[in-house]
Amino acid sequence: MTTHATPAAATSHAAHITDQFTRQAEIFARSRALHCKAALDLLVDAARPAPADVSLDVACGPGSVALAFAERVAHASGLDATEAMLDQARKAAAKAAIANVSWHRGDAYALPFAATSFDIVSCRFTMHHLEQPARAFAEMVRVCRPGGRVVLCDAMASDDEAKAAAFNAMERHRDPSTVQFRTLGYLRGMFPAAGLPPPDESFFAVPFTLEEMVTRSFPVGDDREQLRATLAAAIDGDALGMDARRDGDAVRFAYQSVVLVAVKG
Protein backbone atom coordinates (compact mmCIF):
# COMPACT_ATOMS: atom_id res chain seq x y z
CA MET A 1 0.00 0.00 0.00
CA THR A 2 1.31 3.44 -0.93
CA THR A 3 0.99 6.18 1.65
CA HIS A 4 1.68 9.88 1.42
CA ALA A 5 2.83 12.18 4.19
CA THR A 6 0.34 14.82 5.29
CA PRO A 7 1.48 18.45 4.95
CA ALA A 8 1.95 18.65 8.73
CA ALA A 9 4.00 15.45 8.78
CA ALA A 10 6.10 16.62 5.84
CA THR A 11 6.74 19.94 7.57
CA SER A 12 7.73 18.13 10.75
CA HIS A 13 10.16 15.89 8.89
CA ALA A 14 11.67 18.86 7.06
CA ALA A 15 12.19 20.49 10.44
CA HIS A 16 13.99 17.36 11.69
CA ILE A 17 16.30 17.50 8.66
CA THR A 18 17.07 21.19 9.15
CA ASP A 19 17.69 20.70 12.88
CA GLN A 20 19.89 17.64 12.49
CA PHE A 21 22.03 18.91 9.65
CA THR A 22 22.45 22.37 11.13
CA ARG A 23 23.73 20.72 14.32
CA GLN A 24 25.79 18.14 12.45
CA ALA A 25 27.29 20.48 9.82
CA GLU A 26 30.77 20.99 11.28
CA ILE A 27 31.12 17.42 12.60
CA PHE A 28 29.81 15.98 9.33
CA ALA A 29 32.24 18.08 7.30
CA ARG A 30 35.19 16.84 9.39
CA SER A 31 34.30 13.13 9.11
CA ARG A 32 37.23 11.37 7.48
CA ALA A 33 35.23 8.17 7.04
CA LEU A 34 32.51 9.92 5.03
CA HIS A 35 34.76 12.17 2.97
CA CYS A 36 37.90 10.10 2.48
CA LYS A 37 39.49 10.23 -0.95
CA ALA A 38 39.00 6.52 -1.65
CA ALA A 39 35.22 6.71 -1.16
CA LEU A 40 34.93 9.91 -3.20
CA ASP A 41 37.09 8.52 -6.01
CA LEU A 42 34.93 5.38 -6.14
CA LEU A 43 31.82 7.48 -6.78
CA VAL A 44 33.44 9.93 -9.21
CA ASP A 45 35.16 7.19 -11.21
CA ALA A 46 31.86 5.28 -11.47
CA ALA A 47 30.30 8.34 -13.14
CA ARG A 48 33.00 8.38 -15.84
CA PRO A 49 33.37 12.18 -15.91
CA ALA A 50 34.71 13.97 -18.98
CA PRO A 51 36.46 17.38 -18.97
CA ALA A 52 33.54 19.10 -20.76
CA ASP A 53 30.86 17.70 -18.42
CA VAL A 54 28.74 19.68 -15.98
CA SER A 55 27.65 17.90 -12.81
CA LEU A 56 25.12 18.33 -10.02
CA ASP A 57 25.28 16.76 -6.57
CA VAL A 58 21.86 16.71 -4.91
CA ALA A 59 21.79 17.12 -1.12
CA CYS A 60 25.47 17.97 -1.31
CA GLY A 61 26.04 18.53 2.40
CA PRO A 62 29.48 20.03 3.01
CA GLY A 63 30.32 19.75 -0.67
CA SER A 64 32.90 16.97 -0.81
CA VAL A 65 31.30 15.16 -3.77
CA ALA A 66 30.77 18.34 -5.80
CA LEU A 67 34.36 19.40 -5.13
CA ALA A 68 35.65 15.99 -6.17
CA PHE A 69 33.74 16.31 -9.45
CA ALA A 70 34.97 19.90 -9.92
CA GLU A 71 38.52 18.59 -10.27
CA ARG A 72 37.49 16.53 -13.30
CA VAL A 73 34.62 18.38 -15.04
CA ALA A 74 34.07 21.83 -16.55
CA HIS A 75 31.70 22.93 -13.79
CA ALA A 76 30.20 21.29 -10.72
CA SER A 77 27.13 22.36 -8.75
CA GLY A 78 25.95 21.33 -5.32
CA LEU A 79 22.44 21.73 -3.93
CA ASP A 80 21.31 21.36 -0.33
CA ALA A 81 18.33 22.35 1.78
CA THR A 82 20.40 23.35 4.81
CA GLU A 83 22.26 26.65 4.83
CA ALA A 84 24.74 25.47 7.48
CA MET A 85 25.86 22.66 5.17
CA LEU A 86 26.25 25.08 2.26
CA ASP A 87 28.38 27.32 4.48
CA GLN A 88 30.70 24.37 5.06
CA ALA A 89 30.78 23.69 1.31
CA ARG A 90 31.73 27.30 0.52
CA LYS A 91 34.51 27.19 3.11
CA ALA A 92 35.84 23.93 1.68
CA ALA A 93 35.83 25.32 -1.87
CA ALA A 94 37.65 28.47 -0.75
CA LYS A 95 40.23 26.47 1.21
CA ALA A 96 40.90 24.26 -1.81
CA ALA A 97 40.88 27.26 -4.19
CA ILE A 98 38.33 25.55 -6.44
CA ALA A 99 36.46 28.12 -8.53
CA ASN A 100 34.49 26.01 -11.04
CA VAL A 101 31.77 25.15 -8.54
CA SER A 102 28.51 26.79 -7.52
CA TRP A 103 26.22 26.21 -4.56
CA HIS A 104 22.42 26.33 -4.51
CA ARG A 105 19.88 26.09 -1.72
CA GLY A 106 16.87 24.09 -2.80
CA ASP A 107 14.54 21.13 -2.51
CA ALA A 108 15.48 17.66 -3.77
CA TYR A 109 11.81 17.14 -4.68
CA ALA A 110 11.75 20.21 -6.95
CA LEU A 111 15.21 20.87 -8.35
CA PRO A 112 15.52 24.49 -9.54
CA PHE A 113 17.03 23.53 -12.90
CA ALA A 114 15.68 23.00 -16.38
CA ALA A 115 15.31 19.51 -17.78
CA THR A 116 18.44 17.93 -19.30
CA SER A 117 20.79 20.48 -17.70
CA PHE A 118 23.56 18.16 -16.47
CA ASP A 119 25.81 15.39 -17.75
CA ILE A 120 26.15 13.85 -14.29
CA VAL A 121 23.58 13.96 -11.48
CA SER A 122 24.56 12.38 -8.19
CA CYS A 123 23.09 11.94 -4.73
CA ARG A 124 25.07 10.47 -1.83
CA PHE A 125 23.89 9.27 1.59
CA THR A 126 20.53 11.04 1.32
CA MET A 127 17.80 8.62 0.25
CA HIS A 128 17.40 7.25 3.78
CA HIS A 129 16.38 10.76 4.91
CA LEU A 130 13.62 11.06 2.31
CA GLU A 131 9.99 10.12 2.77
CA GLN A 132 9.50 9.96 -1.02
CA PRO A 133 12.84 8.79 -2.48
CA ALA A 134 11.34 7.91 -5.87
CA ARG A 135 10.10 11.48 -6.26
CA ALA A 136 13.58 12.90 -5.63
CA PHE A 137 15.13 10.29 -7.92
CA ALA A 138 12.71 11.25 -10.70
CA GLU A 139 13.91 14.84 -10.37
CA MET A 140 17.51 13.66 -10.72
CA VAL A 141 16.59 11.81 -13.92
CA ARG A 142 14.67 14.84 -15.22
CA VAL A 143 17.64 17.21 -15.02
CA CYS A 144 20.08 14.67 -16.50
CA ARG A 145 20.79 14.84 -20.22
CA PRO A 146 20.31 11.87 -22.55
CA GLY A 147 23.59 10.00 -22.47
CA GLY A 148 24.32 11.43 -19.03
CA ARG A 149 24.90 9.43 -15.87
CA VAL A 150 22.64 9.19 -12.82
CA VAL A 151 24.58 8.22 -9.70
CA LEU A 152 22.97 7.04 -6.47
CA CYS A 153 24.94 6.20 -3.34
CA ASP A 154 23.60 5.19 0.06
CA ALA A 155 24.14 2.84 2.93
CA MET A 156 22.03 -0.31 2.85
CA ALA A 157 19.87 -2.17 5.31
CA SER A 158 20.38 -5.91 5.61
CA ASP A 159 18.23 -8.31 3.61
CA ASP A 160 17.55 -9.96 6.97
CA GLU A 161 14.27 -8.32 8.01
CA ALA A 162 14.99 -8.51 11.75
CA LYS A 163 18.43 -6.93 11.34
CA ALA A 164 17.03 -4.25 9.01
CA ALA A 165 14.29 -3.38 11.51
CA ALA A 166 16.78 -3.17 14.39
CA PHE A 167 19.19 -1.10 12.30
CA ASN A 168 16.49 1.39 11.30
CA ALA A 169 15.19 1.66 14.86
CA MET A 170 18.72 2.47 16.05
CA GLU A 171 19.21 5.01 13.26
CA ARG A 172 15.92 6.78 13.91
CA HIS A 173 17.00 7.19 17.54
CA ARG A 174 20.53 8.22 16.56
CA ASP A 175 19.37 10.69 13.91
CA PRO A 176 15.67 11.65 13.99
CA SER A 177 15.86 12.88 10.39
CA THR A 178 16.24 9.26 9.25
CA VAL A 179 13.18 7.79 7.57
CA GLN A 180 14.44 4.36 6.52
CA PHE A 181 17.56 2.75 5.15
CA ARG A 182 16.54 0.55 2.26
CA THR A 183 17.90 -2.73 0.97
CA LEU A 184 20.10 -3.11 -2.08
CA GLY A 185 17.13 -4.57 -3.96
CA TYR A 186 15.04 -1.47 -3.24
CA LEU A 187 17.79 0.94 -4.32
CA ARG A 188 18.55 -1.09 -7.43
CA GLY A 189 14.85 -1.17 -8.32
CA MET A 190 14.58 2.62 -8.35
CA PHE A 191 16.42 2.71 -11.69
CA PRO A 192 14.06 0.68 -13.90
CA ALA A 193 11.11 2.28 -12.09
CA ALA A 194 12.40 5.67 -13.32
CA GLY A 195 12.94 4.44 -16.87
CA LEU A 196 16.68 3.79 -16.59
CA PRO A 197 18.55 0.57 -17.39
CA PRO A 198 19.80 -1.66 -14.56
CA PRO A 199 22.66 0.14 -12.82
CA ASP A 200 26.30 -0.80 -12.50
CA GLU A 201 27.19 -1.47 -8.86
CA SER A 202 30.22 -0.75 -6.67
CA PHE A 203 30.38 -1.57 -2.97
CA PHE A 204 32.29 -0.11 -0.04
CA ALA A 205 32.02 0.24 3.72
CA VAL A 206 32.10 3.33 5.94
CA PRO A 207 33.75 2.34 9.24
CA PHE A 208 33.18 3.85 12.69
CA THR A 209 33.97 2.92 16.25
CA LEU A 210 31.13 2.86 18.77
CA GLU A 211 32.41 5.98 20.49
CA GLU A 212 32.80 7.85 17.19
CA MET A 213 29.17 7.08 16.34
CA VAL A 214 27.94 8.21 19.75
CA THR A 215 30.05 11.39 19.80
CA ARG A 216 29.02 12.58 16.32
CA SER A 217 25.30 11.91 16.85
CA PHE A 218 22.44 14.05 18.13
CA PRO A 219 19.96 11.36 19.20
CA VAL A 220 16.37 11.72 20.33
CA GLY A 221 16.35 13.55 23.65
CA ASP A 222 20.18 13.70 23.45
CA ASP A 223 20.03 10.20 24.96
CA ARG A 224 23.50 8.98 24.06
CA GLU A 225 23.48 6.34 26.77
CA GLN A 226 20.61 4.51 25.10
CA LEU A 227 22.44 4.76 21.78
CA ARG A 228 25.64 3.44 23.35
CA ALA A 229 23.77 0.55 24.96
CA THR A 230 21.97 -0.34 21.70
CA LEU A 231 25.21 -0.41 19.77
CA ALA A 232 27.02 -2.44 22.41
CA ALA A 233 24.20 -4.99 22.53
CA ALA A 234 24.38 -5.41 18.74
CA ILE A 235 27.78 -7.07 18.81
CA ASP A 236 26.38 -10.53 19.54
CA GLY A 237 25.06 -11.95 16.31
CA ASP A 238 25.74 -8.70 14.43
CA ALA A 239 22.15 -7.72 15.26
CA LEU A 240 22.20 -4.53 13.15
CA GLY A 241 23.85 -6.01 10.06
CA MET A 242 26.77 -3.59 10.46
CA ASP A 243 29.64 -6.08 10.77
CA ALA A 244 29.88 -5.30 14.50
CA ARG A 245 32.99 -6.65 16.20
CA ARG A 246 35.39 -6.02 19.05
CA ASP A 247 38.88 -4.82 18.19
CA GLY A 248 40.91 -4.59 21.38
CA ASP A 249 39.23 -1.98 23.56
CA ALA A 250 37.18 -0.61 20.66
CA VAL A 251 33.90 -1.77 19.15
CA ARG A 252 33.79 -1.32 15.39
CA PHE A 253 30.87 -1.02 12.97
CA ALA A 254 30.57 -0.32 9.26
CA TYR A 255 27.79 1.07 7.11
CA GLN A 256 27.54 -1.26 4.13
CA SER A 257 27.20 1.08 1.15
CA VAL A 258 26.73 0.99 -2.60
CA VAL A 259 27.26 3.24 -5.62
CA LEU A 260 24.74 2.65 -8.41
CA VAL A 261 25.19 4.24 -11.85
CA ALA A 262 23.12 4.13 -15.04
CA VAL A 263 23.21 6.01 -18.34
CA LYS A 264 20.04 7.88 -19.26
CA GLY A 265 18.75 6.88 -22.68
Summarize the entry for a quick read.
The protein is built from 10 helices and 8 strands.
CATH topology: Rossmann fold
What's the end-to-end separation, in Å? Answer: 30 Å
Q: How are helices and strands ordered from N to C?
A: HHHEHEHEEHEHHEHHEE
Helix amount, in percent? 40-55%
Largest sheet: 8 strands, mixed
Global structural class? alpha/beta
> Measured on Cα atoms, how large is the radius of gyration?
18 Å
Q: Which whole number gives the mean pLDDT?
A: 91
According to CATH, the homologous superfamily is Vaccinia Virus protein VP39
Counted beta strands: 8
CATH domain class: Alpha Beta
Write the layout of secondary structure elements.
Blueprint: H1 7-30, H2 32-35, H3 37-46, E1 54-58, H4 64-70, E2 75-80, H5 83-96, E3 101-105, E4 118-124, H6 133-142, E5 144-155, H7 161-174, H8 184-193, E6 200-209, H9 210-215, H10 224-233, E7 245-247, E8 250-263
Parallel strand pairs: 1-2, 1-4, 2-3, 4-5
Antiparallel strand pairs: 5-8, 6-8, 7-8
Helix pairs in contact: 1-5, 3-4
